[in-house]
Design a protein that fits this description.
mainly alpha; 14 helices; three-stranded antiparallel sheet
Length: about 325
C-alpha cells in the first residue's frame, strides 16, 4: 500500500468504515441484492425496509451504497429522482417521532454512584479483586461520561497517557479525534475536581487499582480479574450502562443509552444556569441545532412560563 493510500485511509473514521461495510453486507446478504445495483433495485430495497428501519438508518444505508458504487468506479444509482421521491414518500407515510435516550438525571447518577461505591468497599474487604476492578472501572466511566458529556466512542478512545491530573484542580483529557472534531485536529477537554461524584478521584482510583500507565483507559475485565490490553468497544457501553442501572435499582433501564449521560449533563447544566453558548463550548457542539437535540424543557418549567405570561396578561387587563 502506498503512502497516498495510507493517508486516505487515515482520513476515514473507523466507525464510518465499519458501519458502511455493515450496510453493504445487509444489502447483499440479508436482502440478497446484487452489486453493482440499479436504481430500481435500490428503490425496492428501501421500500422493503421503510416500515421497519428509521429514516436515519435508511439514509445511512443509501450513503453506504452510494459510496460503494463511486469507490468501484460505477455511476451512482442513488442520485435519481425516483430515489429522492421515494425517500420523501417514506418520510410522509412513516413520520414517527425520533426516539431519544432518557436523560440520566443527577439523582439517578447519585443512586448508581452509591451502589458502585458500596460494591467497591465490599469487594475490597472480601478480597474479590475481579469485582473490585469492575466496580471501580464502571464508576470512573459513568462519572467521567456524565461530567464531560462524552460519547461512547470518546470514552473508548481515551488513553491513559493523554489524561493529566492537575493537583486538586481537575483533569485534562486529550482526544486525537472525535465526532465533533471535523478537521481531526485533536482537542483537549477539561474536567474539574468535585466535592462529591468526582470524576477525577474515580479515574485515579481506577487507573491505580488496575495499574494502568498507558494504553486505553476503559478495558474489558474477564471473570478472573484479568484486565484486557484492548479498549472496550463503543457498542458495549449501552449494555454495560443498563446493567449498572438495573443492579442499582433504577427502573425502565431500556430507556437509557450511552447518550443518556450527555443528555443528563446538558439538562443539569441548563438547570444550573449555563447559557447555551457556554454549554456548546464545553461539550463540543458545533451548532445550536445539535445542542438543542439534547435539551428538554421540563414540564414544570414550561408550565411556569405559561403561568407567568397569563399573570402578565391579567395585570394589563386590570
Amino acid at each position: 500500500m502506498s503512502n497516498v493510500d495510507d493517508y486516505l485511509k487515515a482520513a476515514e473514521r473507523q466507525n464510518t468504515l465499519s458501519s458502511y461495510a455493515s450496510a453493504i453486507r445487509h444489502f447483499e446478504e440479508e436482502w440478497k441484492g446484487l452489486l453493482p445495483a440499479s436504481s430500481d433495485a435500490i428503490a425496492r430495497y428501501l421500500a422493503d425496509y421503510a416500515s421497519s428501519l428509521s429514516g436515519n438508518t435508511l439514509r445511512h444505508r443509501l450513503a453506504a451504497l452510494s459510496r460503494w458504487h463511486l469507490d468501484q468506479g460505477f455511476a451512482d444509482p442513488t442520485k435519481t429522482t425516483t430515489i429522492r421521491q421515494l425517500l420523501k414518500g417514506i418520510r410522509t407515510v412513516h413520520n414517527t417521532p425520533e426516539n431519544r435516550a432518557k436523560p440520566l438525571d443527577l439523582d439517578v447518577l447519585e443512586q448508581v454512584d452509591l451502589w458502585l461505591a458500596e460494591g467497591i468497599d465490599r469487594s475490597l474487604r472480601q478480597g474479590d479483586d475481579a469485582s473490585a476492578l469492575r466496580f471501580t472501572r464502571d464508576r470512573s466511566l459513568i462519572l467521567l461520561g456524565f461530567w464531560r458529556g462524552f460519547r461512547s466512542e470518546e470514552l473508548a478512545r481515551l488513553s491513559v497517557e493523554n489524561v493529566q491530573i492537575v493537583s486538586t484542580e481537575g483533569m485534562t483529557c486529550y482526544l486525537d479525534r472525535s465526532k465533533g472534531d471535523r478537521q481531526t485536529l485533536g482537542k483537549t477537554y477539561k474536567c474539574p475536581s468535585l466535592s462529591r461524584l468526582c470524576p477525577v478521584a474515580a479515574f485515579a482510583q481506577w487507573t491505580a487499582l488496575a495499574k494502568l500507565h498507558d494504553g486505553p483507559v476503559y478495558r474489558g475485565i474477564d471473570r478472573w480479574g484479568n484486565v484486557s490490553r484492548k479498549a472496550m468497544h463503543p457498542n458495549s457501553m449501552i449494555p454495560l450502562l443498563r446493567n449498572m442501572l438495573s443492579l442499582a435499582g433504577v427502573p425502565d433501564v431500556k430507556e437509557y443509552s450511552s447518550h443518556s449521560l450527555r443528555r443528563g449533563f446538558a439538562g443539569w447544566a441548563r438547570a444550573s444556569g449555563w447559557d447555551i453558548k457556554e454549554l456548546m463550548e464545553y461539550v463540543g457542539w458545533q451548532d445550536i441545532k445539535s445542542a438543542m437535540r439534547y435539551l428538554d424543557t421540563p414540564d414544570a418549567e414550561l408550565q411556569n412560563r405559561f403561568e407567568q405570561s397569563l399573570q402578565k396578561g391579567r395585570t394589563r387587563n386590570e
